[in-house]
Amino acid sequence: AQRVTQPEKLLSVFKGAPVELKCNYSYSGSPELFWYVQYSRQRLQLLLRHISRESIKGFTADLNKGETSFHLKKPFAQEEDSAMYYCALRGGSNYKLTFGKGTLLTVNP
Amino acid sequence: GAVVSQHPSWVICKSGTSVKIECRSLDFQATTMFWYRQFPKQSLMLMATSNEGSKATYEQGVEKDKFLINHASLTLSTLTVTSAHPEDSSFYICSARLSGRALSYEQYFGPGTRLTVT
Would you give the DSSP letter of residue A28? Predict the structure, then answer.
């Protein structure tokens, strides 16, 4: 069984402060991990995935297989980063995604 | 590109009636579409995988006779909630995966449909 845990429902930081959204997963094989973001009144969209090892909008996430984590980080948060963030896992040969419960990030001015 | 639409965006129906929700990929073909359900302040729960030209694959605990899925073309999947009850009230979201690309991992999400059953 695959499972994604996002321990924080809410996270509030000030503009310019570092932010880290936590994600832990449970999966017996080699998973693909993703971060999706949902801005207010918008649809869910892909932010980044671990395979590409890219930085999108200043966000990065590193897959740590030892700790089974895929935390999302940004060194200097911006107000426009305020959104709902979902960590997701794809395991196996199908394309199904298992989502965490999400973390609502609020960046205060 | 890769836009997914849903219709209607919200619907209110009476208990016992059926309601159909459409999911369309507007500018690409989607062999596979997914239907999710999201309760307030909760995560997306996958209900079923919709495959063009074949039967949908339902997740454990999802009643296939209650949530009928039809994926008749490469750009359209429909979810019909039959004999709806108030507990079916929820936010239903679809996503689509680009077809023809074996390594296409990304799902493109629709804006969701808010269903309220009175």
Answer: S
Whether chain B has a CB inside 8 Å of the CB on A56: the answer is no
Residues of B in contact with A101 (CB under 8 A): 42-43
Tell me whether residue B69 is exposed, middle or buried, using C-beta atoms within 10 angstroms of its C-beta: 0 to 12, 13 to 18, 19 or more. Answer: buried
Do B60 and B49 form a contact (C-beta atoms < 8 A)?
A: no
B56-90, pLDDT tens digit by residue?
999 999 999 999 999 888 899 999 999 999 999 99
| Whether A41 contacts chain B with CB within 8 A | no
Segment B14-46, tens digit of pLDDT: 999 999 999 999 988 888 899 999 987 778 899
From the candidates A30, A43, A50, A86, which should be mutated to test the interface with B, based on the most B CB atoms within 10 A?
A43
